[in-house]
Amino acid sequence: MAYAQTLTPSEQDHLQRRWYWYDWANSAYATTIAAVLISPYLTAVAKESACPGIEDGQTCHTNLNVLGVGIAPGSLAPFTITVSTLISAVVLIFIGAVADRSEHPTRLLGIFSWAGALTACMMFFISGTNWQLGVVLIILANVFFGASMIVYDALLIRIAPPDDRDRVSSRGWAFGYLGGGILLALNLVLLSLHDTLGISEGMSVRISLLSAGLWWAGFAIIPVLGLASLRGTVATPVERSAGVVRGSITQLATTFRELKHYPQTLSFLLAYLFFNDGIQTVIGSASLYGKEQLKFSDSQLVQTILLVQFVAFGGALLFGRLAREHGAKKLILWGLGLWVLVVLAAFFLPERAFMLWLALGLAIGIVLGGTQALSRSLYSQLIPRGRESEFFSLYQAMERGTSWFGTLLFGLVYQFAHSYRLSIVALMVFFVLGGYLLSKCDIREGIRAAGNQVPRVV
């Protein structure tokens, strides 16, 4: 069984360098599509369908007919993400059980990555009033994205020993922010110069969506091929004679029964459910909030996310370094305190105050990568061996781009109050609850209960 402790430092370094590339690859989707362009673009398409000829910045008071339910165009994007998460909550948990029984985990990584990338590329064809295609593609892309991350995150345990995971996870996130930032910079040029290039703003957005899918597909080749040596090394508690599908269902049922034996792991997941939903909803709704509530242009929003990307590169490395002395748990709690301040500042931010908006982006960048990277590495310590993918499937059901309580609350508040300010400030409850639950979680006891080595500092 090839876990990190059985590898030489040279072998660990070799595998870690290739592992980082998947953060670089998938961040194109997470940044250009999920965080910046798709929500405001889908909203614009939906508003054009419900209120033909509506001007930018105007509120459309005509609802869309979505399976017989009236949905405000401004709520369509957050509700779509909510639906994709509910679907993911079922699909991804089963995928995690199957992945733990696979002799070729990197093949699964490739399948899910390239399926997601293809779906992202197809977003190029969202245009006019065709919001229905956008809804379907967002749901599929988020499910494939989450599925690939289950396999990817589980590999962390096999390439990094316990005392190195904060560092390795933080470098992966940092590398991802750098890659996503580079592509976003290129797309910023395209969005800013679309008139000079002789194309419409809508076409420049569609080309940017396509570029993210191609970037994801191309760079995923490096980790898929570079980590192929890890195949066939996963332990499984279910007899292989049961078959992959039936055996995976049996394993999954066993895991849910056994969760009561890992109360601290369950407590961490509950805390993560709340604070990560808050983080993901802020990330996914920031561009919508900035455009519809604060009246910023698409190019200004891309500039902001670009700033966040490059600051988050340094923030992730900083949090990883501080965690060596103070522990991942304490750093995450510090980060959640800053998130509360960010949400409050966003509520009071005046319209068109772009410099203040950039200052808010700077604060988000500092804390964003660190809280996410350290959450991943801390959770990896709480997973029993042989159940990596399966337990990370529970984690991924709540991971980036797959919030459900947060986007649901955000959409409902807007649906009834028609105020994005009230929607954004309502998210503060997720950071407060998540931080409280995490503060009560005994991480060392959870690591011991999972049968793992306790790091020097947690």
TrEMBL record:
Pfam families: ATG22. It is a multi-pass membrane protein. InterPro entries: Atg22-like, ATG22/LtaA_families, MFS_dom, MFS_trans_sf. Coiled coil: none annotated. GO terms for cellular component: plasma membrane. SUPFAM superfamilies: MFS general substrate transporter. Residues 264-458 form the Major facilitator superfamily (MFS) profile domain. Keywords: Membrane, Transmembrane, Transmembrane helix, Transport. Its main location: membrane. The keyword Transport applies. GO terms for molecular function: transmembrane transporter activity. PROSITE patterns: MFS. This is MFS transporter.
